[in-house]
Amino acid sequence: MGVDIADVEVVVQWRLTCSLDTLWQRLGRAARGPGREAVAILLIEPKYFDEERQAAASRADKRKEKRRETEAGKAVAVEQRKRKRAETQSASSGNPTEIPRTEGSQLEASGSEASAPAALSQYQQLRVLYRTEGGTGREHASTKKAKTRTVDGDGLSPELDNIINAATRPFKCYRVPIMAFYENDTVGGWCPTTVSACRGTAVVPAHPIFAFLAAIPSAERNSAPRASHIDPKKYPMDAQFYKLRATLHDFRRSEMLTKYGQPALESLGTGFIMGDETLSRIADCARARKLKTVEDLYRESKWHLSWKLGTRVLELVTEFYPPPQPSGHETMESNSLTARQAPNGENSTGIPPGSRQVALRRCGACGELGHTTELPPYQPAKAFQQAKELLMSFSLYLKR
Fold first, then answer.
1. What DSSP string runs through 55-108?
2. Which among 131, 191, 252, 330 could disulfide-bond with 274, CB atoms 3.0 to 4.6 Å apart, if both were Cys?
3. Residue 303 banded pLDDT, cuts 50, 70, 90
4. Confidence band for 106, pLDDT divided at 50, 70 and 90
């Protein structure tokens, strides 16, 4: 308010919290310079639209109807109890009581018909509506003893109501309520645009008047990669785990001291570098051997400094949880796959290289091939010892 800048191109009014005079003054701050065009954006609460009002009224009617049915049921029960009491008393006395029946009197309309008023224009009808439903009107708004303008149940004056819901009103134009409110129709035919030509075109985003604005980015965004679920009972919390946590704490403390200084470290702690939850998550993923690359670190921990300090954190993780060495079974599988690969890009089984192949199962504890946590790896020496003991027990049984 009070700012006179010639090149204002966009004016935004957040929520409908003012009168039409104040709103029009705020919107008039745009395009003050000659030959300029501007866009006025009015963000309105949903409760002011006719669709929302109808839905709210429908819900209120249902509640009233339910309340009316409940009260009617109670009233019927009371009347039935009164009737039973009266019948019991009349039966005991032997004289039935006659209830007098009242007849309603008919009222005859005696008023004379008023003379039909002269036909009013569309703008005059709106001004009559503004004066009857909106209080004293604009011509008395400047007086000191002006009454407060009455509004509807939602706190909205009739002129603003017609502007917001112009698309569902009979005139179907956003300019008509404003011209009627400021009595611009009495000035003369200064506006060459007819009502049908300006019908709601300014609110369409594809209108040429919005061409100078930047394109609205797409609301669709790629979802964040999902982190893995780590069962704490599956991975033991050994001494390496606690040493890694202590090392990560020393790391974030040294980074905080280097970047922000000792006063910030003493007053704010190490949360700017790495929070406690992030540290615990990195340690859990490390003992589960989920951290191999910086991408894995960001996906599992969502650490905001993964791309800057992630390489150093992975080095610390590797010191305590080194990657598993490929076993003989895994090397044999890789060699067999390489041997079966044909020179023309196809293997001996006829499966093209781009086709889907069955993934080999790995152990959840050590990450190696050939066994799982439920089925331990095959040990020939142990199996031979078990077979030998079985034969010896069987031979002793035969000797008996």
1. HHHHHHHHHHHHHHHHHHHHHHHHHHHHHHHHHHHHHHHS-PPPPPPP-PPPPP
2. 252
3. very high
4. very low
Place of tokens 């706190």: 155
Q: Residues 365-372: what's their mean pLDDT?
A: 68
Q: How far apart are CA 54 and CA 317, in angstroms?
A: 62
CB 247 within 8 A of CB 316: yes
What is the residue extent of each domain of the chain?
10-43, 122-141+148-201, 239-320
With 60 as the cut, is the pLDDT of residue 340 above it?
no
What whole-number distance in Å separates Cα of residue 200 and Cα of residue 174?
6
Predicted local distance difference test score (pLDDT) of residue 313:
94
Q: Give the Å distances, CA to CA, from 223 to 217, 220, 226, 332.
A: 16, 9, 8, 39
Greater pLDDT, 88 or 98: 88
pLDDT score of 305 more than 50: yes
The number of helix segments (H) and strand segments (E) in the chain equals 12, 2
Segment (H or E) for 364: none
Q: Compute, in degrees rounded to 10, the torsion defined by CA atoms 297, 298, 301, 306.
A: 80
Q: How far apart are CA 400 and CA 390, in angstroms?
A: 16
What is the C-alpha to C-alpha distance for residues 99 and 55, in angstroms, rounded to an integer? 46
pLDDT digits (tens, 9 = 90+) for 14-48: 888 888 888 888 888 888 888 888 898 989 888 88
Segment 119-141 mean pLDDT: 70
Q: Which residues, at least 6 apart from 312, have a Cβ–Cβ distance to it below 8 Å?
A: 251
Q: Which of 281, 305, 289, 306 is closest to 366 using CA atoms?
A: 289
Place of tokens 């008393």: 89
In DSSP terms, 347 is beta-bridged to 341
Q: Distance (Å, rounded) from C-alpha 299 to C-alpha 17?
A: 45
| pTM (2 d.p.) | 0.35
- In angstroms, the CA 277 to CA 271 distance is 10
